[in-house]
Write a structure and sequence with these properties.
disordered C terminus, TIM Barrel, alpha/beta, 12 strands, eight-stranded parallel beta sheet
């Protein structure tokens, strides 16, 4: 009988880093195979304080308040803002404006990840990223993340002052990246990616199957668990219905045992449901931010910081107000 990937992950998860109360059912895969024993809003674990360590002896606290990750695409062809910040000065000014608006982290990317985007070399990627990174590092309280899957780009970015590596392949494309992350003791955002592989029909089961390999690599390279954030990869080889199901079932992902980032900003599925083009999806994005926050997401990677800051302020206020209410055990009321 094949192993239940959820059981495997839960059985080996360390206690204390990001605990969560869950129940499991054996008939896989089904929508009820993993679920929180309390409703998403009244489950305290995702909202409890937890400190993550980053490079350069920096830390971030997650839990009670959602944090925003501002996107700086230093590219000519990103799906939403391609070409707007290819100029170093404009990119740096944009980053500082997002920090002023409330971004706790700035995520700099030098290669578009949209479907069909032309691949660039490591040299081109670095030429785009490094000047912006060097202009930002140490200039504010915001942490700096670099969006790359390449170990060579990660290495030079970390040497230049980056705090976090954001890998859209979750250590599974460049086998040397895990070693670089471990050596530099940096933060890691590891994203689920459905491209170029067979996927499970159940969106949550596919998350567990994919991330089980990443967790193996984290352990293999000796990356400390309190440096890791998981991103379920909204929009990456997922159709609108799959993205919406993933959002609806987001709380099931806490069984993975790591803080979660939601990256829904201006994605195609937001446009599918709102009828808006990419540059006019910030209100729809803010709505998904509220939903994901209520289901326990800790970080939100966004293009427009201001609208999502306001959305998070309301969501966090509701979570705080709800914290004193009695929780209802779903197992005893269903």
């Amino acid at each position: 009988m094949p192993l239940d990937p959820v059981s495997v992950l839960l059985d080996r998860a360390d206690d204390g880093i990001y605990p969560t109360a869950i129940s499991r059912q054996s008939n896989m895969p089904s929508k009820s195979k993993v679920f929180m024993t309390h409703s998403a809003i009244t489950t305290s674990a995702p909202f409890n304080p937890v400190t993550l360590r980053m490079a350069n002896n920096k830390e971030i606290e997650l839990g009670p308040k959602g944090l925003l990750v501002g996107i700086v695409n230093v590219t000519p062809d990103s799906f939403s803002d391609g070409g707007q910040y290819l100029d170093e000065k404009k990119a740096v000014e944009h980053a500082f404006s997002m920090i002023e608006a409330g971004a706790a982290i700035i995520d700099i990317g030098g290669e578009s990840t949209r479907p069909g985007a032309e691949a660039v070399s490591a040299e081109v990627e670095q030429a785009r990223i490094l000047p912006v990174l060097q202009s930002l590092a140490g200039k504010s309280k915001a942490l700096i993340s670099v969006d790359t899957w390449r170990s060579e780009t990660a290495r030079v970015a970390l040497d230049a002052g980056a705090d976090i590596i954001n890998d859209i392949w979750a250590l599974q494309k460049d086998e040397s990246l895990g070693e670089v992350v471990a050596q530099h003791k940096c933060g890691l955002i590891a994203m689920h990616n459905g491209r170029d592989r067979d996927r499970d029909r159940d969106v949550i089961a596919d998350q567990f199957n994919y991330f089980s390999k990443t967790i193996d690599l984290i352990e293999l390279h000796g990356i400390e668990r309190d440096r890791v954030i998981l991103d379920p990869g909204f929009g990456f080889a997922k159709d609108p219905e799959e993205n919406m199901e993933l959002l609806a079932r987001f709380e099931e992902l806490h069984a993975l045992g790591f803080p979660l980032l939601a990256g829904t900003s201006r994605k195609r599925f937001v446009g599918h449901y709102t009828g808006r083009e990419a540059d006019n999806r910030d209100i729809g994005t803010a709505a998904t931010t509220v939903v994901a926050r209520m289901k326990g997401a800790a970080l939100f990677r966004v293009h427009d910081v201001a609208s999502n800051r306001d959305a998070l302020a309301i969501a966090d206020a509701v979570i705080s107000a709800d914290a004193g209410l009695e929780t209802v055990d779903l197992e005893t009321t269903s």
